[in-house]
Design a protein that fits this description.
The protein is mainly beta. Helices cover about 0% and strands about 45% of the residues. The strands form two sheets. Strands 2, 4, 5, 6, 9, 10 and 11 form a seven-stranded mixed sheet that branches. Strands 1-3-8-7 form a four-stranded antiparallel sheet, with no helix packed on it. The protein is globular and about 40 Å long.
């Protein structure tokens, strides 16, 4: 059973940066599409970014040019580098994996991490 654990969240000032990490165990990520979602208080969960096994990437319009997703299959890790953070980026960020090998973005979240809180505030 694939398990995902996010880390790297925290409190940051507007304009600052954070790097989220997602560590996978129980299965290799090599063939799978992986992504990040977020959920702000009172709002629905939304897709933020997604990376396919061949490293094609997708980003939500709201984060394009500011966020970068990457993967290290040798370490079974996925990262989300978040720059130029805004207060509206405040949310719980979740890592998710699509269980269908070689699927594309947007991904179907079949496995989820527990989430990590990101708060952007002065």
């Amino acid at each position: 059973q694939l398990q995902l654990v996010e880390s790297g969240g925290g409190l940051v000032q507007p304009g600052g940066s954070l790097r989220l990490s997602c560590a996978a165990s129980g299965s290799t990520l090599y063939y799978y599409t992986i992504g990040w979602f977020r959920q702000a208080p009172g709002k629905e969960r939304e897709g933020v970014s997604c990376i396919v096994a061949n490293s094609n990437r997708w980003y939500a319009d709201s984060v394009k040019g500011r966020f970068t997703i990457s993967r290290d299959d040798a370490k079974n890790m996925v990262y989300l580098q978040m720059n130029s953070l805004k207060p509206e980026d405040t949310a719980i960020y979740y890592c998710a994996v699509d269980s269908r090998p070689l699927s594309g973005c947007p991904l179907r979240g079949d496995f989820w991490g527990q989430g990590t809180q990101v708060t952007v505030s002065s």
